[in-house]
Amino acid sequence: MSGAIQSGMEKPAALPFNLDGRVVFVAGGGSAGPGWSIGRASCITYARMGAKVCVVDRDAASADETTALIESEGGLAHTFVGDVSVDADVVRLFAQARERFGEIDVLHHNVGIGKVGGPMETSAEEFDHVHNVNVRSLLLSTQQVLPAMIERGRGSIIAISSVAGMRYVGYPHLAYSVTKAAVAHFIRMLAQQYAVNNIRANTVVPGLIDTPRIENTVAKMFSTASLADAKAARAQQVPMGRMGTAWEVAHACGFLASDAASYITGTELLVDGGITGKFSTL
Ligand SMILES: NC(=O)c1ccc[n+]([C@@H]2O[C@H](COP(=O)([O-])OP(=O)(O)OC[C@H]3O[C@@H](n4cnc5c(N)ncnc54)[C@H](O)[C@@H]3O)[C@@H](O)[C@H]2O)c1
Q1: What is the rounded CA–CA span in Å between residue 193 and residue 108?
Q2: Which of 165, 177, 238, 250 would bridge with 181, disulfide CB 3.0–4.6 Å?
Q3: How far is the CA of 132 from the centre of ligand 1 (A)?
Q4: Where are the alpha helices (DSSP H) in 73-206?
Q5: How deeply is 278 buried, as exposed, middle or buried, from its count of CB atoms within 10 A (0-12, 13-18, 19+)?
Q6: Per residue in 17-56, pLDDT tens?
Q7: Distance (Å, rounded) from C-alpha 83 to C-alpha 57?
Q8: Atom of ligand 1 nearest to the CA of 244
Q9: 23-208+245-273 maps to which CATH number?
Q10: Which of 42, 55, 58 most suits a substitution to test ligand 1, by most atoms within 8 Å of the C-beta?
Q11: How far apart are CA 54 and CA 39, in angstroms?
């Protein structure tokens, strides 16, 4: 794949829905628990599309599981362990990734943490921590990939926000929501500044997704007895009547990473079963 922009007069030789030979760096490629997180499903999707995948996570065992799953399908991946909110770790992780696979073609910023509560339940320290992991880490990673992307005249940066960054989702989740809004605006700014360099930056906005992580938090949000009831209540909020899967988010990321999205930059792709357009989410 050349990465060259079509002139508009030529017929593409093949469908560009692939990442053949591309290097993808997924910050947060593990999972909060057993099963399919968005980062894990995305890593596998990128590998299935032909990419070499840098599976980056602070949780070594979880990242290794993702890498092993890719290798079991004959894909190419490697685990890199570190905290992407720590400056020295970020420098080391990108150096190791480049040494292993070469320059990064696609940065997928997947890490995200939250702290349930509004302003009176969130200390300044907690707010700073959520900001450091959700937003500052995006700055650090972007600084690592931009120089080579500019030099090569191509690149794709994808960040994962949330419907919570666009709407009140029914309970106070202030630090999470505010930082997820910041992620989307960071990407909009990046897209404008570097469009001229053929570097695309887009945000994927998942709605209510059924990943292992929600099991730690969702039950607390509903006054129902069991996790199953809480999940059912969450599903009922969605116009499509169900939560999304990690794969449904991952496939949107795969599209945006590939040359199939070569004229798409600065956008927010909602993967939400219609919930953002609903009059009320309650
Ligand atoms: N699950 C949902 O319903 C949902 C909805 C909207 C948005 N999102 C967003 O999607 C993304 C993935 O969500 P998920 O449910 O798959 O979560 P997850 O917690 O399973 O995956 C996140 C991964 O990032 C890693 N991580 C966290 N902080 C890190 C750090 N500082 N350095 C390195 N690794 C770190 C974790 O160890 C974990 O493996 C998050 O940004 C989340 O906010 C999720």
Answers
A1: 19
A2: 165
A3: 14
A4: 87-101, 124-131, 137-152, 174-194
A5: middle
A6: 999 999 999 999 999 999 999 999 999 999 999 999 999 9
A7: 7
A8: 3
A9: 3.40.50.720
A10: 58
A11: 11
